[in-house]
Write a structure and sequence with these properties.
By secondary structure, this protein is of the alpha+beta class. The protein has one domain. Helix content is 46%, strand content 12%. It contains seven helices and six strands, in the order H-E-H-H-E-E-H-E-E-H-H-E-H. The strands form three sheets. The chain has a two-stranded antiparallel sheet with strand order 1-6. Helix 2 packs across helix 7.
Length: 194
C-alpha cells in the first residue's frame, strides 16, 4: 500500500470513529460545549505520527507543509499547534485541521476501555463530567460507551505498526511532515520535473 493509499484508508477509519463517538454523544446529550478546546490545551496529548498522514498530505497538497513544519518545530506553546485560541482563560478555541484530527481528538470526551480485569472503565472529560452531574436526564449504560480499545484495533488493522509509537501531537506532526517532505524532495530529484 502506498503512502497515499494508507492515508486514504486511515482517513476513512477516522471518519468511522467520528461517526460512532458523535452518535453516542448526540444520543446521550453529552455534547462538547461550543468552541470548547480545553483538551487541546494539553501539550502531552499523544497520537501515532501515522495517524497524521491524511493531515500531512493535505498540507503538502495545499503547499503549506514547510510553513507548518517550521511553525511546529519552533512552537513553544502548551496547546496543540492547530488550536486557534479564542480565549485561553476559558479554554475556548477551534481546530484549524478539524477534518484531519487524529484518533484521540475524535474519541476524547467520553469513551470506554477494558480495565486490567476486563471491566469497563469509562473515561469522561472533566467538562462533560460536570455537564452529566448537572443534568439528571443524561442516562446510558456503561456498555453503550464506544470503546477506545476496539476502535484502536480497527485502526491497527490497516497496518500492525500503525500505532506502535505514540508521541505528543505536535511532535508527531514534525515527524510525519519531515518524512513526507524528504520523500517528496528525493522523488523530485530522481525524476526531475520539466
Amino acid at each position: 500500500m502506498s503512502g497515499r493509499e494508507l492515508s486514504i484508508a486511515i482517513n476513512e477509519k477516522l471518519q468511522e470513529v467520528s461517526a460512532v463517538f458523535s452518535e453516542f454523544q448526540n444520543t446521550t446529550g453529552l455534547l462538547c460545549p461550543k468552541e470548547c478546546g480545553r483538551c487541546c490545551f494539553k501539550s502531552d496529548i499523544s497520537c501515532s505520527p501515522y495517524e497524521l498522514l491524511p493531515m500531512a498530505y493535505d498540507l503538502i497538497d495545499k503547499g503549506c507543509a514547510e510553513e507548518v513544519l517550521l511553525k511546529a518545530k519552533n512552537y513553544s506553546g502548551k496547546a496543540c499547534v492547530f488550536l486557534e485560541i479564542s480565549d485561553e482563560q476559558s479554554g475556548t478555541g477551534r481546530c484549524s485541521e478539524y477534518q484531519f484530527r487524529p484518533f484521540i481528538c475524535r474519541a476524547f470526551g467520553i469513551s470506554a476501555r477494558r480495565g486490567k480485569y476486563g471491566q469497563i472503565e469509562k473515561s469522561i472529560c472533566k467538562t462533560l463530567s460536570e455537564v452529566q452531574k448537572m443534568d439528571s436526564r443524561i442516562n446510558y449504560a456503561d456498555n453503550e460507551i464506544p470503546s477506545i480499545d476496539s476502535w484502536k484495533k480497527n485502526l491497527e488493522s490497516l497496518d500492525p505498526n500503525l500505532l506502535e509509537v505514540e508521541v505528543p501531537i505536535n511532535v508527531g506532526l514534525v515527524i510525519i511532515l519531515e518524512k513526507l517532505l524528504l520523500i517528496k524532495s528525493l522523488s523530485e530529484e530522481i525524476i526531475p520535473e520539466f
